[in-house]
């Protein structure tokens, strides 16, 4: 069965960096698009990053563009989110989510999330 | 960017009753709409995609309808486990992929 397990969250000071990981299993990791989606405390869902199945395209919303980088290691079946220049408004639970296709779409599986807190 | 608007923000329903949730897109998204359920402390779960297709393992009491800009999620007879927050999401025109702000279904 499909499993997505995030890790790497924690408390970081404003301006700091953090790298999140998402270990994938139960499917052919290199065949599907992958996303990061976040949820600030008590708020709704916000898409954060997308990586096409072949790694050829990466997309970000303006709110994180230039600060966040999505990547993957297919030999480890792991998705990453490198977050730099963190701000208080980046505080959220970060979920990795799988697309049912190689390109962008809805999310058919989600991880349990990892909490990132940006605070001094 | 396509803006998704859900209504109402909160829906109070008694167990066994029908719940009707609405989602509106700021422009036509054809049938490229998904619905998710989220319970406290849990990740979202896919309920519906393609506006009306139930995801694997989703009970038949959940149904989706609509196309273009107006969409509805109906829960025919609310069970205790259905009290949660529901989000719609468009995947017609991306990036960005955008969500509605959510509808909380609470016990009346």
Topology record:
The complex is a heterodimer of chains A (120) and B (108).
Chain A: E1 3-7, E2 10-12, E3 18-25, E4 34-39, E5 45-51, E6 58-59, E7 68-73, E8 78-83, E9 92-98, E10 109-110, E11 114-118
Chain B: E1 4-7, E2 10-13, E3 19-25, E4 33-38, E5 45-49, E6 53-54, E7 62-67, E8 70-75, E9 85-90, E10 98-99, E11 103-107
Parallel strand pairs in B: 2-11
Antiparallel strand pairs in B: 1-3, 3-8, 4-5, 4-9, 5-6, 7-8, 9-10, 9-11
**Overall geometry of chain B:** globular
Structural class, from secondary structure content of chain B?
Answer: mainly beta
What's the mean pLDDT score of chain B? 97
Q: How many helical elements of chain A? A: 0
How much is the radius of gyration of chain A in Å? 13 Å
Could you give the count of β-strands of chain A? Answer: 11
The biggest beta sheet of chain B reads: 7 strands, mixed
| Fraction in helix of chain A | under 10%
Mean pLDDT of chain A: 97
How far apart are the termini of chain A?
40 Å
Order of helices and strands of chain B: EEEEEEEEEEE
Helix count from the secondary structure assignment of chain B: 0
Name the helix and strand elements of chain A from N-terminus to C-terminus, one letter apiece: EEEEEEEEEEE
Shape descriptor of chain A: globular
Overview of the molecule:
The complex is a heterodimer of chains A (120) and B (108). By secondary structure, chain A is mostly beta strands. Chain A is built from no helices and 11 strands. The mean pLDDT of chain A is 97. In chain A, the strands form 2 sheets. In chain A, strands 2, 4, 5, 6, 9, 10 and 11 form a 7-stranded mixed β-sheet that branches. Chain B is an all-beta fold. Helix content of chain B is 0%, strand content 49%. Chain B has strands at residues 4-7, 10-13, 19-25, 33-38, 45-49, 53-54, 62-67, 70-75, 85-90, 98-99, 103-107. In chain B, β7 and β8 form a beta hairpin. The radius of gyration of chain B is 13 Å and the shape is globular. Chains A and B meet through β5 and β10 of A and β5 and β10 of B.
